[in-house]
Amino acid sequence: MNTFALALHGGAGTITRQLMSVEDEKRYLHELENALQTGRALLAAGHSALDAVEATVMCLENCELFNAGKGSVFTKAGKHEMDASIMSGVDLKAGAVSGVRNVKNPIKLAHCVMKHSDHVLLSYPGAEDFARQLKLEFEPETYFFNQLRYDQWQQIRDTDTYQLDHSESPAPETNRQTPEHPDKKFGTVGAVALDLAGNLAAATSTGGMTNKNYNRIGDTPIIGAGTYANNATCAISCTGHGEFFMRAVVAHDISCLMEYRGLALQEACKLVVNDKLVKFGGEGGLIAIDRHGNIALPFNSEGMYRASCKNNEPAFVAIYKD
């Protein structure tokens, strides 16, 4: 029997039961399950891993709960700057976009960059010119407006502080977790998949950091840092403090540990997420699938919005560490 598998994430960080209402928990679990079943249905019907991860991420981009697409946070200039990337494990082709402002689904644009251009990464405003050329869907700024996100930005807009996703209180300039500022979340969404043909794919999308300045770009659109897929090893999508994930080249490092050292997926993920990243202050997690359909969902934070499924087995959906 051929195997298909899918995993997704909706961000990681200080996510605990104490900080989550019962109603919000139900909403998150519902949206994670909905996105998972969207991708699962495609894989079960024989669609490609690329199509499955794109559709899964689009579901999360269309939900205001997650910091990607519709739910993206505000920049220092009061705008939305979104990044996304996608990669095919069968031929190592990839597409990515950074800083796009009004594209409804940045992951769809990233896929178009891969399919319809000779490039890998396009940035604003050229990326949006390319989207218009392909007649992709755009939305006005009101579509991306979220009162909670706006209120968070208003608290720190006149400071040099940036904030990691939807923290309840402004983080200090160091952005280190402290008792006074305990709630820190890394808002990125992503999906990885193995299809019935044995091909792997990965996709990641984010709205970045609240009050980010200077057109800051994180690891999400950087192939090898936040996203990577290779049929010989695995597919990876990361969520965390992007600067650390870029410096550690996390996604590609896991693939290399499998290819050159012969580590199993779980071993490679554990070494990178719980050892290498931790040693120099990197916090977050990732989702991973190898070419045999094994799934890993490691994170070194308090929680990670995550879900996974394999063939017709029961789905796994979770938020907290326990």
Automatic annotation (TrEMBL):
Gene3D superfamilies: (Glycosyl)asparaginase (3.60.20.30)
Record's protein name: Isoaspartyl peptidase/L-asparaginase
Taxonomic placement: Bacteria, Pseudomonadati, Bacteroidota, Cytophagia, Cytophagales
Chain residue ranges for the region called Disordered: 162-183
InterPro entries named in the record: Ntn_hydrolases_N (IPR029055), Peptidase_T2 (IPR000246)
Name of a matching Pfam family: Asparaginase_2
